[in-house]
Amino acid sequence: MKKTVVFFTLLLLLLAACGDGRKPEPTPQPEPTAVPEQTTDPNLTFVNWQWESLEQNGATTEVQAQKGQYLLFFKEDGSFSVGLDCNNGAGEYTATGDGSIAMQLGPMTLADCGPDSLADELMGLFGQPVQYVFAENNAVVTFTAPDGRIYTFRDIATIPQATVESPVESMEHVPNPDLINKLWVWERRDPNGNDVEEIIVPNPTDYTLFFSEDGSYFAKMDCRAMQGAYATVHSSIMLEPGPSTTIYCGDESLDTIMEASLAAAARYEIQENGNVLELASAAGGPLYYYRRVTAAGD
Predict the structure, then answer these.
(1) Deepest in the core among 58, 78, 138, 143, taking most CB within 10 A?
(2) CATH top-level class of 183-292
(3) φ and ψ of 286, to 5 deg
């Protein structure tokens, strides 16, 4: 009798372990959240957007600034650069194609631009999704922040030029065949008795100059580019900066030093049988030396 009871007990335990043979229902998995797809707005990219005004609390502040002082520039790869008064910055943006854009500011310079600067107000445009719309045949774009602030930017190419005569235009321009239509790379800075450090440019091909016969020039300054006008008469030279990109090239970059040296240049000399260009200021400042890049067969 005991054997029979034990036998039936074991049988019941086996049946309980086997259950009814059905497989357990899988646990439903939540659907993944859709990530907005990055889109490129051709009306927004590759335009120099100059900050024009700020509307907040029912009042409008007109931004009276020099060209390039407060500037936005978007590229197709999702990056952007910004001019914040005396500082430059760069970052990444995400546009979703429905008029929404989020700009995340990354590295930037941190100079003190003075009490009248509007850089802090412009900083409110970054770090959160904002809505944007175009006006005036895409010459104007406005960004509306969640708190109601409205930032208006204008395509810098549509801003009327000042009627003040350019100093370069007032000079007689005599093209020098030893200077024009040649690529010059910056090699070094000689202090020339001034209280500045000597510079040996570690990557000269990132800092170049090209002068055209028509009185225009193009400068590559590390990750930035600038075009402008110039005039030469005998050994005198004047370079007038023009539009430039405002990308932040990093703390080790020499872009701002090169840019300042071009604006201060007043004298030039071609040396070493046409292979070296010396630029100097009228006040006996540092000397900047460029070497001509020769093509094969020259």
Answers:
(1) 143
(2) mainly beta
(3) -60, 155
